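Slides due. Your pick:
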Amino acid sequence: MAGFTPDCLAGNTAGAPGKNQSGVLDLLKKYQAAKPKAADTPTAAELLNRYAETQDKIQRSFLIKFEASSVHSGVVFGGSLRANNQKTSLSGELRLDGARICYRYYRWGQIEQKRLVSKENASYYSYLWDGRTCFQYQRHPESEIPAGMVRIDQNPSREQIAHDILSLDYMGGGLLGFLYGRYERIDKVLRDVTGLSVRQKTEQVGESDCYVIDAQTQAAKYTLWIDPAHGCNIAKAVVHWTGNLPAYDMPNWTGKTAFNSVENICFKEITDLWVPIEADITLNRNWPNGEWTRQSWHHKVTEIVLNPNHDALRSFIPDDVKNGVVATVSGIDGKYTWQDGCVVDKDGKLILDRRSTEPNLSAEPKPELPSPNHSNLLDLLRKYQTTQTKVENQSSKERIVHFPEDRSLGNLLI
């Protein structure tokens, strides 16, 4: 897949690649045709419907490659660490087909305030829902367990998985309409809100004249700039979270206020569909106890394919999980080992065959893996025993979860 040149008409045009004269004229014709007139001002519901129509086409199925750079100050991990202009970088992929989702990325830089991780030793995070099983996997080359850990959940909420990734984990969620405080896309958040209004005059964002929607809910005040020249996508968004309701329905976040903005958005036209692919995003939060955090990042989609052949690409296969990693399975006590798509115990007996649809929960002795892999597995398990000793010294309540506060995966003692 080749890279592409974005159209930053609705954002900051500084540094945008040049276009030939005929291309500019064609673009201006489209812009003039779409330029709103005062007499044609649509309602807020009509604008949200047009926005939803564009985003539904984009989010039906895609493969995205992205890169991001972030600067973070204030509390990290709910207050256990502090950051002062902590700079981190990410690169990864997001794949989605409406029923399955896979989010994988590398993270490096100032992972902690006094620890600098190089790109060559970047931490790796992976979150996969294949339609029946959820995999959370991570590895940190500089840690005591460099091969990593994987948690397998066979009974998660299907809807919640996609919401978590798009609204909390994926740093480009704002480009897809997922703004702070809610799991749902913004058109769904505002769908039944009374008192939506559209300003009488359009406002210019970059080179585009945009309709401006104002909305007030019990939880937040929203302002959206809708760009008719680019598929009625959002050219800019601002959210003021009031703290009257807990963000993301998390009770312990009651009273927390926040400011979230998405701006300097660039678009790319793909098969007559305008796709937002680059933006500057800000998220500032304040806790009732006086704690605070300030985070800003630049997110750029470097490649995108709409409606790819996911089966041919093996988009939703956990082939990134390395043999020998520590594995836990929901509903099954203990820590085990991942080997060739299976979870096995220390004796090499099968706990879960990921190549089948159901775990082996029988009380009868579990079959061993095929003999060609058995000798290699024994060597692997000897190494695993050494690793397991280190793992057992940690809290028995440790598991892998995603961190909404810093948009990553990691170890959390709960």
Observations:
- The helical segments are 21-34, 44-58, 158-169, 186-189, 310-313, 374-392.
